[in-house]
Write a sequence for this structure.
């Protein structure tokens, strides 16, 4: 396939494109879903296609095709070139970039799983779900619904460009989530969930803490606990966010604002803030495609979709803004280095600045010390997502939580949501625990500019934050 | 492939694909879905341009035998890719003994409904036209006084899909539309306020006049926001775009037959009961000629229909595809979708059929928005855009907590100053019961829901 891509690059250059990038995805996606006793989904997807970016006068035009045929790929190059040329007349801000040495990948760039999902049959994976669902039922109470899912995404990503880069690596993410819905005595529905996901081999599900039985039981237990949970009080409280929720905070709030396309366009509140103090000394935020996934978890993304080799970027260093998340054009415009953050959700989209693994660095507190320091407030746990606006306003949903008084957990609470402005919130972080956990999922993912769901890693320690606004019962 | 050839071309491939599948296993039941769509767009953000033009093409096969059901999809609609999906679907069937005991077969053939209308001129629009539309939106935004950051896009989408199954169903449908949007960020010192306006239509070629100015003016009007400084319970007036997000997060979810059957809908056992104010009526019209989601058939080949979900506050009907309709013993409503709707995927063929509202419509009330505001004695909130996080609500609990970041205070019957972001929380369904008024200002929103403004009492607010 690399020859086809190289020919496409040459063809684009012959058409007078200033620079051409050609990439090929050959990915396999497997989804399994059991709802109660019914196998609802046994799905296999083959996602194969070519994406071409032609640059003309520092303006990109993009096109794509599901075909691997050389003539169809040439036609795709023509369309991309035509779009770039037409668009260049309207561009008043051009994001040119400097030539760099060609990038060559090595086989060792690909994560090696002990038990790769492609080596295991369907029944092996369905058994994971069966064990998880049955375990959830053992522990749950007044169960209305148990849904167990398994997802895997793996395969080749090949890239070349006008500089002669030659990149060929394999992406991998697996995911095993369980969700239990229970009914309260008043008929209201509550839920609990648990999962283990990331760039992992299937051997993870034999490891203590991550077996299907333990995942299922945790989901059942959390749902049972929510049956008697009280409504979250509305108002401002000190919060302890668990590792999952801390990750969403890093990703949804600060991560998106640091994406350099928003910065170049002046739309991020982080414009002109490099070197400025934005947070307390407890706030260090990293993004990178090659974290220590064996130790902490997350996703393995050694190259972005513009051919830049991954590194680990310190965005915020003990509260000081240091770097944005760049593609090649935004990096030159902002006088920084490309950060391997130019990603596309699939071949049907042009790559844009996106996150890889985004997380807060740990502090020095134990969980007990953090609760003690919390005093009275809310321990917010797990997450079903969040959202941030261009002005820094955010909302995060915690799946569950606890009301804490004098450092002791009192009772569970439900419908826990945190809101505020991220730049304000970073000045309210008073501490972090010493544990660092990352996760990246197959189900769900990041959405930006219509590109959803892009697998992203996120995480951090538990964060202690004062004066957080919680939505809830007035 | 030209627009006029899409249906015939796809149907021919469907027929060949089904014959190939049956040649491999004549005891199995098969369904084949083919999708072909051209999407072009030009986006300009603060002078940075991004232009895309491509064909999304793909196929999906479902195979069933002895109540084992599998699904396989692949990119492309060439015979070799279709055969690949067929082989994978059969391989998955053979690889497992796990059954779906509720599966009763694929969709039975029925006469199709009608395709939506569209202006043929939309197909003639070029990249240069898209550049022109987008520049016009940006230009209109810059006419508004004050510091405005401007982003806009415009696009054309046309294409079709075909479905066939071994029960004799073979149908296809085509559609086309064009769309534009304007995103404005008004800045004053450290304060930033945003607004978004969108237009999506199949009725005529894009006319973006006024779109940019409307977004920029709205963003400007939100500057100078004050703190509410209260945690209390207040009435909230949701303008059409915000009201659409309310409907999508609540009733669109709980009216889906899958959530009803799986025990996840809070209104599952309330058919025939009054669940909303007496003036509230909600229909899903999959045959509205101008509805963006209008097609002759749904994603399983069943004719799309008009379904009354709530009539004058009383819950009348849920939305079903063939799978959940058969389980529930209810008539199919033509609501099967493959990742369609406002949050759909461009590679929709990769998704199994699920249920979605096609063109949801809330019937208008009698009061203007100004009259609704005037009807409020004390304080209330005017929510003028989609609250942050409202789509993260959980269908099962029916509860929500979101942040209204584009919001004004209403006091003694008058719209007052803009407010800083406010957390709004409560139960969607208690809110519907406490509906205080419905506007007469029905609008087709960018979320593809037609709705007027809704005045709802009883939500907790803090900010």
């Amino acid at each position: 396939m690399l020859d086809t891509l190289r020919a496409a690059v040459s063809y684009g250059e012959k058409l007078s494109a200033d620079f051409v990038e050609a990439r090929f995805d050959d990915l396999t996606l497997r989804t399994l879903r059991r709802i109660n006793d019914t196998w609802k989904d046994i799905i296999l997807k083959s996602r194969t296609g070519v994406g071409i970016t032609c640059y003309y006068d520092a303006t990109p035009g993009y096109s794509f095709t599901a075909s691997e045929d050389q003539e169809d790929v040439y036609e795709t190059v023509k369309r991309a070139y035509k779009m770039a040329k037409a668009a260049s007349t309207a561009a008043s801000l051009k994001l040119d970039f400097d030539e760099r040495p060609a990038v060559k990948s090595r086989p060792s760039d690909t994560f090696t799983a002990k038990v790769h999902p492609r080596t295991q049959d369907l029944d092996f994976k369905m058994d994971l779900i069966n064990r998880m669902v049955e375990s959830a039922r053992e522990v749950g109470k007044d169960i209305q619904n148990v849904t167990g899912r398994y997802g895997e995404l793996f395969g080749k990503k090949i890239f070349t460009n006008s500089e002669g880069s030659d990149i060929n690596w394999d992406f991998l993410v697996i995911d095993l989530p369980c969700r239990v819905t229970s009914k309260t005595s008043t008929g209201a529905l509550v839920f609990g969930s648990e999962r283990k996901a990331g760039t992992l081999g299937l051997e993870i599900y034999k490891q203590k803490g991550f077996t299907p039985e333990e995942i299922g039981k945790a989901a059942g237990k959390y749902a049972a606990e929510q049956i008697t949970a009280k409504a979250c009080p509305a108002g401002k409280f000190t919060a302890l966010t668990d590792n999952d929720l801390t990750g969403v905070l890093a990703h949804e709030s600060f991560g998106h604002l640091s994406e350099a396309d928003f910065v170049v366009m002046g739309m991020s509140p982080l414009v002109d803030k490099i070197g400025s103090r934005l947070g307390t000394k407890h706030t260090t935020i990293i993004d990178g495609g090659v974290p220590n996934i064996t130790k902490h978890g997350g996703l393995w993304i050694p190259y972005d979709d513009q051919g830049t080799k991954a590194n680990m970027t310190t965005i915020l260093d003990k509260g000081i803004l240091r770097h944005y998340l760049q593609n090649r054009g935004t990096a030159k415009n902002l006088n920084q280095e490309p950060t391997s953050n130019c990603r596309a959700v699939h071949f049907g989209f042009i790559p844009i600045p996106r996150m890889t693994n985004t997380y807060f660095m740990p502090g020095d507190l134990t969980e007990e010390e953090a609760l003690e320091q919390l005093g009275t407030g809310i321990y917010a746990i797990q997450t079903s997502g969040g959202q941030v606006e261009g002005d820094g306003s955010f909302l995060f949903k915690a799946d569950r939580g606890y009301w804490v008084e004098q450092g002791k957990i009192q009772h569970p609470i439900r419908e826990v949501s945190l809101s505020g402005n991220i730049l304000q919130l970073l000045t309210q972080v008073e501490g972090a625990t010493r544990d660092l956990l990352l996760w990246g999922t197959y189900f769900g993912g990041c959405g930006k500019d219509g590109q959803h769901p892009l697998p992203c890693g996120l995480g951090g320690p538990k964060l202690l934050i004062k004066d957080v606004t919680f939505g809830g019962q007035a | 492939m030209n627009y006029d050839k899409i249906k015939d071309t796809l149907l021919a491939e469907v027929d060949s694909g089904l014959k190939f599948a049956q040649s491999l296993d004549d005891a199995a039941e098969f369904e084949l879905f083919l999708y072909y769509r051209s999407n072009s767009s030009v986006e300009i953000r603060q002078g940075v341009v991004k232009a895309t033009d491509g064909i999304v093409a793909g196929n999906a096969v479902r195979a069933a035998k002895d109540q084992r059901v599998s699904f396989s999809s692949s990119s492309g609609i060439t015979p070799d890719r279709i055969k690949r999906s067929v082989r994978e679907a059969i391989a998955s069937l053979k690889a497992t003994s796990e059954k779906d005991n509720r599966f009763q077969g694929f969709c039975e053939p029925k006469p199709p409904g009608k395709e939506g209308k569209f202006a043929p001129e939309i197909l003639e629009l070029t990249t240069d036209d898209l550049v022109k539309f987008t520049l016009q939106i940006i230009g209109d935004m810059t006419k508004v006084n004050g510091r405005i950051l401007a982003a806009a896009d415009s696009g054309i989408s046309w294409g079709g899909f075909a479905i066939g199954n071994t029960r004799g169903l073979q149908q296809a449908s085509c559609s086309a539309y064009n769309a534009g949007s304007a995103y404005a960020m008004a800045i004053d010192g450290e304060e930033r306020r945003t607004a978004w306006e969108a237009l999506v239509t199949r009725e005529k070629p894009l006319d973006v006049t006024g779109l940019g100015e409307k977004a920029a003016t709205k963003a400007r009007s939100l500057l100078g926001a004050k703190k509410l400084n209260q945690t209390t319970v207040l009435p909230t007036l949701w303008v059409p775009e915000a009201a659409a997000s309310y409907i999508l997060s609540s009733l669109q979810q709980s009216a889906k037959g899958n959530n009803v059957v799986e025990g996840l809908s809070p209104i599952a056992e309330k058919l025939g009961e009054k669940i909303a104010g007496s003036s509230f009526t909600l229909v899903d019209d999959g045959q509205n000629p101008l509805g963006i989601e209008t097609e002759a058939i749904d994603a399983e080949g069943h004719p799309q229909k008009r379904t009354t979900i709530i009539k004058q506050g009383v819950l009348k009907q849920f939305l079903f595809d063939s799978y959940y309709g058969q389980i529930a013993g209810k008539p199919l409503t033509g609501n099967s979708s493959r990742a369609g709707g406002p949050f759909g995927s461009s590679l929709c063929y990769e998704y199994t059929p699920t249920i979605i509202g096609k063109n949801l419509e809330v019937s208008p009330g009698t009061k203007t928005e100004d009259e609704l505001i005037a009807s409020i004695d004390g304080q209330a909130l005017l929510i003028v855009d989609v609250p942050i996080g409202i789509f993260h609500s959980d269908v099962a609990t029916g509860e929500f907590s979101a942040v209204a970041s584009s919001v004004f205070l209403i006091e003694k019957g008058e719209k007052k100053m803009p407010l800083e972001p406010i957390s709004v929380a409560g139960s969607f369904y208690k809110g519907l019961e406490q509906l205080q008024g419905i506007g007469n200002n029905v609008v087709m929103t960018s979320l593809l829901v037609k709705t007027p403004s809704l005045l709802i009492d009883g939500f907790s607010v803090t900010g």
User: Anything to note?
Assistant: The mean pLDDT of chain B is 95. Chain B touches chain A through 90 residues (CB under 8 Å). The first strand of chain B starts at residue 29 and ends at 45.
